[in-house]
Design goal:
The protein has 360 residues and is of the alpha/beta class. 26% of the residues lie in helices and 24% in strands. It has helices at 11-24, 35-39, 43-50, 62-70, 88-95, 104-112, 139-148, 172-181, 194-199, 225-228, 330-334, 342-347, and strands spanning 6-9, 29-33, 56-59, 77-79, 98-101, 119-126, 134-135, 152-159, 189-192, 207-208, 234-246, 251-252, 258-259, 264-269, 286-289, 292-296, 305-308, 320-324, 355-357. The two termini are 23 Å apart.
Length: 360
């Protein structure tokens, strides 16, 4: 029998989330972000499912794009960080990838390149994130150089990225939108990431670029009706492999961080930080056993963790455990795991944990 720790992928939930994203911005084209192995879900599996339903895909680098291309993906793929060296220009041209231009160096490489075909370019403008992108004052000149460049196919798309769209009480997003709108450039535009697509309708423009929300998780810290409609794609599961009765005062796990306050029943579950579950998760972190809420009891180890199931009915070796996903949001788990977010928990899921396409 295979080790029971696995990540179940509900592709029907993925399709639902794409439809929901389109319903929020019906006038915009949709670019699905599948970087970092589709946020840990499996880039090839996810991209093949998304391919007929979206207008384009986005990844961080040419290597990520080539993996998809070599798997048969022919939907346009944008390189969000652009090129890291000039040799990647021809790699992109041969496969018709779209590229980001976000600096003078990247633009110079494009202008000087000898390419087999021109590339669709996206010009990234810094409106306040202060990470990548040309400054707003220089954007018109960059745009004109791209229009004149023989290696740039058609008119570039203009885009920017929000720093605080998940904070609905911050004025930063509105200021970034104002700066972006003020650019004297006639071009298709894109600004909305997942948080902006869910909560900032004025940001939707010509293209939206959802990522995290497509996997059924909310980037917003508070309840929001648009986020409530999302369905989780990944459910991290395992099974109980042992049960033990311990007396009051007994310590459980490495370091004895959990000490029972009464005679307790402790379940051992075959999953740990080697499978992607966060070691930082504290005592009391919720999990579901046979659909019932239990609480983590003791430190997470590499291959196992333990839970207090004293008050649960009918827990036996073999009982199904949900660590996050259907019925228990990964975003809730992240709040018990120190200074982290649900993005990190899914993205760092190791290859040891098999991704299994489930039947919804």
């Amino acid at each position: 029998m295979a080790r029971p720790a696995q990540a179940l992928l509900n592709l029907d939930a993925l399709r639902h989330n794409v439809r929901h994203a389109r319903s929020l911005a019906p006038g915009a084209r949709l670019m699905a972000v599948v970087k970092a192995n589709a946020y840990g879900h499996g880039a090839v599996t996810i991209a093949k499912e998304l391919q007929p339903a979206v207008d384009a895909l986005a990844v961080a680098s040419v290597d990520e794009a080539i993996e998809l291309y070599d798997s048969g993906i022919r939907t346009p793929i944008l390189l969000l960080e652009g090129l890291f060296e000039p040799s990647e220009l021809e790699q992109a041209a041969q496969r018709d990838f779209w590229i980001t231009v976000a600096s003078e160096q990247q633009l110079a490489w494009l202008e000087q390149g000898k390419l087999t075909r021109p590339l669709q370019c996206w010009l990234k403008v810094n409106t306040g994130m202060n990470r990548l992108g040309v400054d707003s004052a220089h954007a018109p000149a960059f745009f004109e150089r791209l229009v004149s460049c023989v290696n740039c196919a058609a008119a570039p798309v203009l885009y920017t990225h929000f720093s605080s769209a998940d904070n609905l009480h911050s004025a930063r997003t509105a200021r970034q939108l104002e700066r972006f709108a003020a650019l004297p450039i006639d071009a298709p535009r894109s600004a909305a990431n997942s948080a902006a697509l869910l909560a900032w309708p004025g940001s939707h423009l010509d293209w939206v670029r959802p990522g995290y929300m497509l996997y059924g998780n909310s980037p917003l810290p508070d309840m929001h009706p648009n986020a409530d409609a999302l369905r989780p794609v990944m459910t991290l599961t395992s099974r109980v492999i042992a049960l033990r009765e311990v007396e009051a005062g007994a310590a459980v796990g490495y370091g004895g961080t959990f000490v029972s306050q009464r005679r307790s029943r402790i379940a051992t579950i075959a999953i740990g930080y080697g499978d992607g579950y966060p070691r930082q998760a504290v005592n009391g972190t919720p999990l579901l056993i046979n659909g019932q809420r239990a609480r983590l009891a003791g430190r997470v180890s590499m291959d196992m963790l333990t839970a207090d199931v004293t008050d649960l009915d009918d827990v036996q070796p073999g009982s199904e455990v949900v660590l996050w996903g259907d019925g228990l949001s990964v975003d809730e788990i992240s709040r018990y795991a120190g200074n982290t977010i649900g993005y990190e928990l899914t993205t760092r899921m190791p290859s040891r944990t098999p991704r299994i396409v489930s039947v919804s």
